Amino acid sequence: MTDDITSGHGMLRHAVATMVYRGAKTLRDAPADFGAFRVKPASRTPVEIVAHMGDLFDWALSMVKGQEIWRSSSPQEWDREVARFYASVKEFDTHLANSSTVACPLERLFQGPIADAISHVGQLAMLRHLFGAPIKGENYFKADIGIGQVGPNQPAPRKEFS
């Protein structure tokens, strides 16, 4: 199996790494009470969104294994939930890296759980701004994003702006 960017696996893994790079900015250095911030009574809190993102990658992993199992997890405290999110993404990415067989169409993985997680990263960025702790903008085209970089330790931004 090839993991270069031109392969289906490679492109999907790059999309996941891109989501994690952008997501790491929203999760990193979040104020202590940010996880419980709620815009409206019925809206999700940031920690609920992060829990859902972990669930999305657990679901994605089940689909690539041919099982398609959905579980809604009860959110834990912020740091534990953020760690669970990274662990879920890592397990999914590792499976893609080590398996030439995926039991579902790659484009469905992208249009479902991965695109959903990308949307939630944008929600977290907006919530950081509304909370009063915005993240800096960045020229993501110049970012050093690579296949397999799916943990909390991401390369430093190359070109940020306010």
Question: Care to describe what's here?
Answer:
The protein has 162 residues and is mainly alpha-helical. It has a single domain, classed as dinb family like domain (Four Helix Bundle (Hemerythrin (Met), subunit A), Up-down Bundle). 53% of the residues lie in helices and 2% in strands. It has four helices and two strands, in the order H-H-H-H-E-E. It has helices spanning 8-27, 46-64, 78-98, 106-131; strands spanning 137-138, 160-161. The protein has a two-stranded antiparallel sheet with strand order 1-2. It starts with 7 loop residues before the first helix and ends with a strand.
Quick rundown:
It is built from four helices and two strands; from the N terminus they run ααααββ. It is mostly helical and 162 residues long. A two-stranded antiparallel sheet has the order 1-2.
Calculate the mean pLDDT score and round it: 95
CATH class: Mainly Alpha
State the distance separating the first and last CA atoms: 41 Å
* Overall helicity: 40-55%
Order of strands, widest sheet: 1-2
Q: Tell me the CATH superfamily.
A: dinb family like domain
Shape: globular
Indicate how many domains the architecture comprises. 1
Spans where pLDDT lies below 50 across 5 or more residues = none
Essential attributes:
162 residues; mainly alpha; globular
